Amino acid sequence: MGALRIAFARAAARAGVLGSVAAVVLLLAGLGTGVADALAGASTSGLRAEVASTTGIDAAARWQIRIARDADAQADAAASALDRMIMPHGAAWTRTVETAPVDAVADDGTTFGAVLLADAGVPGRAVLESGSWPEADDAISAAADADALPTALHAAAAAALDLADGDVIELEDGDGARRLLVVGTWSPTDPTEPAWFGEPIVATGAVEGGAGPFLVGDDAMDDLPAATIVRWTATVDADELTPDAATALRSALPNVEPALRADEAVGTDGLAALGGLGATLDRLLAGLGAVRAIAPLPLLLLAFAGFAALDRLAALLASSRRGETVLLRARGASATRLARDTAIEVLAVGIPAAAVGAIAAEAVLAVLRPGEARAWPLAVVAASVAVVGAVLLAAGRAWRDATRPVVRGSGDEVGRMPRLAAAGGAVLLAVAAAVALWQFRLYGSPLVRSAAGTVEVDPLAVLAPVLVLVALCLAAQLLTRPIGLLLERVGARPPGLVPALPMRQLARRAASYSSASLVAMLGVAGITLAAVFAGSWQAFDRAASAVETGGDVRVVLAGRDVVRGDDPLALVDPFADVEGVADSVPVARGEARIGSEPATILALPVAAWSAEADGIDGDRPAGDAVERLITSGESAAPALPDGAESVTARVVIDAPAGTPGSVAVTAWVLGAGGDARRLPAGEFAVADGGGTAEAELPDAPGLHLLGFAASLSGAQDADEVPVAIDEVTAVGGDDARTGDDLAVDGTIELSSTRPSGRLPTAAGSTDPLPVLLGAALAEEIQAGPGDPLAFRLLTGGADVDAVVAGVADTVPGAGDAAILADLGALSRAAFDAGAGVPASTERWLATTEPDRVAATIEHDRTAALTTRTAADASSSPFIATALAALWVGAVGALLFALVAVVALVAALGRARFGEVVVLRVVGVPARVQARARFAELAAAVLAASAVGVLVGAATALVTARELARASVAGAPAALPVPAQVDWLPWAVALAAFLGLAAAIGAGAAASVRRVAGQPGLREEER
Using CA atoms, how far apart are residues 20 and 17, in angstroms rounded to an integer? Predict the structure, then answer.
């Protein structure tokens, strides 16, 4: 018989074992491909989804400076730097020019401040409400006929100024009037679009002291007597962004400002870098890092368990061919040839199996995750690793068996050198696990921050969970023989062969069970680790999402910063009629500076928002601090009577005779939630000496009088215009309140250089503002309860004297590096400082149906807003797929454990055929032998499962919570990670494994019973 025919005959004779090898290769390639490709796809899709959902300033970067005399050279220099530094990484940029409010006069003589904007991208981000865009031919022709420049005006500003197409306004430009012809009106398609950079004027058409924007060309801004700023705004296309591009862009962003500053054509005076794109990319890259930190776990679990199963099958293949190997060696076949033939056999069955597995995995992913780009190179790598591993293990076993053609037992026993090699490998693995765990615990995470400030995966720490798990499983293997001897002694005490016989077999054949037991331990330990990680991550993610969101639904109102004119969103709840909303409170969010330390400041009506429900207290005794915040809000300003219809006051203007102009008086009130609103109370000619001011109160409960403000206009060169306000009275309601309760204190000194001023109510609190600090901020500035604190509000410019009322682990909605104050008390502090009073920029809603309420608000919105729920703040877009991959890896390890058990059963059936015959001869019934074999396998599987649970729990104890924290990017450091278990999938997976293992054991027992029941069978007949 030729060598080829012999090879085919040998392969055909062992088709069952080779088929099992092919099945393992198929599973290993398929699961490896699915896990690796799903994780890669989830990283990209999660990154794109998060970027697409980020709006406003958080999704853009901006660099701005005063426009240079040579604007063209400045534009060219900036374009060169931006094209070189950010465009290769998937970012795009636009250049815009905007002025501060310029004195303007309408046709009817109305004066106002006009904000001019040159932005070629506006037509792509806005819709025309009427007329044409300024660059249209008909607009240019109409403007030329009117001896003016064409402009398109924001529709809201046009309505407020009573301007329409065809109206002409004149700008004061220093050398005479510059005329603009309104040729159209427009509205932004989405004011929250990143390219608008969250500018309030884009959303509302108004800023402090001005209205607009008036869309014009660059030439309309030449030599205007107002600050003119040129801005370059960078955004990213979410559909094209990749993790590598995001990493490169994040690294490039900090270098743009120095590059612009280094070019003299751009200028250096006042150059500023703004925007939250860098911080957003930091958060998203941290999420990607979390995926990379988890990715090795399922892959390594699959690898260890799969190759252990392949090794078990390779041992079975070598054992089943032991007689053939002895015969062929006796006839001159070399060990190398026999190993080569085995390798060819495994290649013949392994390559198609690996290909089928990889293709099937990609097909399943295409169905389950449509729209994601598939990474075929990962499939090739996974299939290749599976095939090569199978070939090396099978060929190695064949070569080793061929060099030792006569051995005892089942073939699992090995010589001294292999045992020493295995022991040495186990020691090295234990050392590696110890070092990796030490590194993991040192950092407290597999993620570390590099010198460049980016989050990276530590290559050693990231291996700690799997290395520890495998090392503990190997250590448990050392206890197999001692535990077996113990079970043998225990099993020998009761009468009968069962359990004495199976326990004796476990003790004496420990090596036979080692491979299957190891794979079973790995699988059960894997699902235990996955269950603890899943439970801990889910609980921590919920807590972190609640802290970040603040309310059940967080509504961000675009274009709001400080209190301006008539504000329809102040004092009233715009979402009161939305079905499912139980409560709604106004929230003001802004940036503050404590010296040079930046911080987020959050102001809300603390009394209306439960501290315990939103984690203000945390683990610190902040209850007294919360009470102080509530008290500061209640004492911020005197209350007006319920149902009051108006507030009146006497106005006395004591100016020198002949002083021209007029004084406009406004009353400032606080709503029940602490949000402020200013109400017109009348305008008085300076020459008339004053009169009675009256402000009509809105129909809103819980109003408080904050004070009055006066502004002087039309009094050029006036040096002194004192305005006194007294005799304040609330009209209507339950009573008419006057006297000290509503009195204001002092006189407002106005002049042409200081045209506005305020008078607060005397009854309001003027004590330092009590604030609650996040733990990280308190540690950074070394502040504690009772310490004085001074900070500046960047929005509005108020300098605030405060006192630290307490320190909390986290501030809801802002994290652990933030300041929390009562909104009413902060409004009073800003009003007293004569600065911009913060407007509510958000509403936090309480509801039991956050997703439905958010969808309703988005669908029915009449103002520029975005909604955010805890689900939107969750790390699930990145981690859910990684967690699913971890479960797949752990369950895959259990599948390989079942394969190893099948191979063990087959090996034992062949090696112990003679034992069955002998026991039958001495009178042991077939039924007893079957029970003994089943009890033997059951004891082995249950013992391995119990050890696997302990190993998984021990590994989870030292790694799971750290992995959970690393998986939630940006979570407050003081927020604890609870140790919880996701019991349901763990129980289902373990029960399924034990059930299938029991079925395999039952099959083995049935086979023993069938063999033992055949009369006249001799051992040589096997």
Answer: 5
